[in-house]
Design brief:
Elements (H helix, E strand, L loop, with lengths): L3 H22 L8 E11 L29 H11 L6 H4 L2 E2 L8 E13 L17 H6 L6 E8 L12 E8 L6 H8 L4 E4 L14 E12 L2 E8 L6 H13 L5 H6 L19 E7 L11 H30 L2 E2 L3 E2 L24
Parallel strand pairs: 3-9
Antiparallel strand pairs: 1-3, 1-4, 2-3, 5-8, 5-9, 6-7, 7-8, 10-11
Helix pairs in contact: 5-6
Length: about 375
Amino acid sequence: MSNVQPLTNEINQTTEKRETKTKKERVFDFSAFKTRHIAVHLSYVGIGYCGFASSTLNEANLTNYQKLQNDNTIEYYLFQSLFKTKLINSKEDCKYSRCGRTDKDVSGFGQVIDLWVRSSLKTDIIDYTQHDGDYDYCRMINSTLPVDIRCLGWCGVPDDFNSRFSCLSRTYHYYFDPSGYDVEAMKQAAQYFVGEHDFTNFCKKDPAVDHCNRKVLSFEIEPVTHLSRFVVKGTAFLWHQVRYMVGALFLVGSGTDPKTIKDLLDVNNFTKPDFFKYAPAYPLVLFKCEYKEVDFVCDSSNVKLLGDLVDSYKELEIKCLMRKQLVEMALTQKMGEGKVVKDQMELMKKKKSELKPKKITKND
């Protein structure tokens, strides 16, 4: 029995040496691969996430996903996937950039990023238009992402491409229930936003931004089944700008004079009133980022990707139906002293907030 413990220790030491040797042998040699510049089309349902941009990426020499701090952002999970799949060696080397920063609970169906990743191509100079023969980047990235964050496509891009500064326009969708709103008045008021204006009264002040002039290319309201959506297209947007514009249109839809929008765009004579609030985040979607000559592709993973999206949609559809039936059941219950509440279904058409018309005061 006295020899059992020393023998066990010897076996453990031998095992540890083998594991250490194995780990050393598994060090990934990035120098054996070429790299190429690609753009990636990302989609994500942002509800429940703390925005797109991660504060943990400020450290330029990040080389391992284990060094990332989980701040529950889209970028955290994205870089976790990029490190795990060995597509990048470090945050600094990949020269990462993003088209836009979406806030907490805001979704993005057309978000675009660009970065340098390893390639399976062996040619000395990689033609950025070549896709055949290289990795299935969508499959690799999606393999370690949460199901509500998906890579929909990728493409090679020139060296000087930048997903932020090369973007020609950005389109946002904002979904809402039109019941109880004067939609025609809202459509009229929305046209005051079109053009180049100082949007100081329609944003949250960002110390890093030196001016608030932005150009809105179009602003429409469209029906979507029994709901509606705002469709706003512009070259760039300020912090909370879309949500402030939508909040103002909700006021107009509740009885405020449409010309109030025109007044608030006159920043020399009118300031943002205290009652003026921006709209909630969850119905907002960065729907499209437009570029010149960018054609995204998705390889063999496309069939599985579509299957995942359909399954996710069916699950949400079932949950929505369950909630609807729960509401219908609750509305049929007796209230008070046995009195049946009549026309309770009208409550489902009532506005979510009581936005009262207010008077906009002119600066002295």
